[in-house]
Design brief:
By secondary structure, this protein is an alpha/beta fold. It folds into two domains: 1-32, no CATH class; 36-268, Rossmann fold. It has ten helices and 17 strands. The strands form four sheets. Strands 3, 4, 5, 8, 11, 13, 14, 15, 16 and 17 form a ten-stranded mixed sheet that branches. It has a three-stranded antiparallel sheet with strand order 9-10-12. Strand 1 and strand 2 (22-25) form a beta hairpin. The protein starts with a helix and ends with a helix.
């Protein structure tokens, strides 16, 4: 009876739709979480640009933590080229990418836990394992970011696991494309001002950039070209100023804007 009453309450609040045999989250609600495959097809150029910018913050020989998500998955493909890394992750897809690289100088540690739609391992096993590690840098993807709610997730257990990952690190880098702005998930991961670096893309409007620059310690904006060149054109046409060809197979060419927004008033000048 308790579960049935809870479902009735959530349905009355518009957070779920009742279906045969159970319920499903309403798209756009704080509970809605698309699966990994669905998210992988969204904002691909932006995620590649953000990943290219993020890898610059990873030092060879360091110990880093990476959360689950499609943007961190794009980053993982680039981390295969970084020497001597130790990577602790609760992301099945991230671990797969790095394991497939067969780097003998890299150590990959995958936490245990229950698998979520975003292919994260979460829950008490994941949290317990993260309490015993100490990391130089933590990089997380998020479901949403908002001035009041901060960085959020629609999954309570995943948010708890992400918080444990953040606590294990000395520095925090958040990777989030512009569509995450104004989205609020059910559970908080971190306040905006906890991020040492936020990497987003140029689709984020200027008002949002200014608001975020006053909160995070460093804001990095990456610019992506939305379309790839055909293969024969790519061989003959030079890349634009500041362009970098992403090394992953099938990735789009991106241009990373090196400008980093300083906090608050300096941005408004």
């Amino acid at each position: 009876m308790t579960i049935r009453r809870d479902l009735e309450l959530l349905h009355a609040r518009g957070l779920i739709e009742k279906v045969h045999g159970g319920a499903t989250a309403v798209p756009g609600s704080a509970l809605f979480e698309p699966g990994f495959a669905a998210k992988l097809a969204l904002q691909q150029a932006e995620k590649e640009a953000i990943a290219e910018a993020a890898v610059a913050f990873v030092d060879p020989g360091s110990a880093i933590g990476i959360s689950a998500g499609t943007t961190t998955y794009a980053l993982a493909r680039r981390l295969a080229d970084v020497v001597g890394l130790t990577v602790v992750t609760n992301a099945v897809r991230v671990a797969d990418v790095l394991h497939d690289a067969w780097r003998t100088d890299q150590t990959i540690v995958l936490t245990g836990g229950v698998r979520t739609p975003s292919d994260a391992l979460v829950g008490p096993f994941a949290v317990a394992s993260l309490r015993n590690v100490h990391l130089d840098l933590v990089i997380i993807g998020v479901h949403g970011m908002d001035m009041r709610s901060g960085f959020t997730s629609p999954n309570i257990l995943e948010a708890e696991t992400d918080r444990a990952l953040i606590e294990a690190g000395r520095r925090l880098v958040v990777v989030a494309d512009h569509t995450k702005w104004g989205v609020i998930g059910l559970s908080s991961i971190a306040r905006l001002n906890q991020a040492d670096v936020l990497i987003t893309d140029s689709g984020l409007d200027l008002e949002a950039r200014e608001a975020l620059a006053g909160q995070v310690k460093e804001l990095v904006v990456a610019e992506a070209r939305p379309l790839a060149l055909p293969s024969r054109q790519a061989a003959t046409e030079p890349a634009g100023s500041g362009a970098t060809l992403v090394g992953a197979a099938g990735a789009r060419p991106v241009r990373v804007d090196p400008g980093r927004y300083p906090p608050g008033p300096a941005l408004r000048s």
